[in-house]
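Hi P.,

Sorry for the delay on this. The queue was packed all week, but I finally got your sequence through. Input first:
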Amino acid sequence: MSPHPETNDIRRRVQRQLGPDATPEIVESVVRRVMALLDGPGEDSATVLRPTLPEKNEDGGDRLVIAVFGLNQPGIVAGVSQILSRHRCNILDISQKLMQEFFTMILVVDLTGADASFEQLQQEFDKLGNSLGIKIYAQHEDVFRALNRL
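Then the structure:
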């Protein structure tokens, strides 16, 4: 039995986030790094990471972190927000910046009332990104936090 009950949940979430191309070796590598932080020397890494891996956010819903990058053009904000609106996702926070001709945007989205799965949203973001020639990356908040603590 694993020393941390959340190991299987972390493994499942990492696999879901990395998608079908993730090999078992890659998934296990990420899970081992997360677990090393939980078991790491000193109380600091475990205390910092443990609260960032909730099953749900404080309001009881899943959250998504979305990053958008590409050359500036009309329709980027509209396209992303239309996908989210169509699937009943709530934008909790949004930041966008134009750096010369480069557009960047980061969103935190509440999926509590969503009628689409993460995979369905990712497919729509991929289609939009391909049509506009931009990159749209989406991650569950807990995976984002865990990977950015490594």
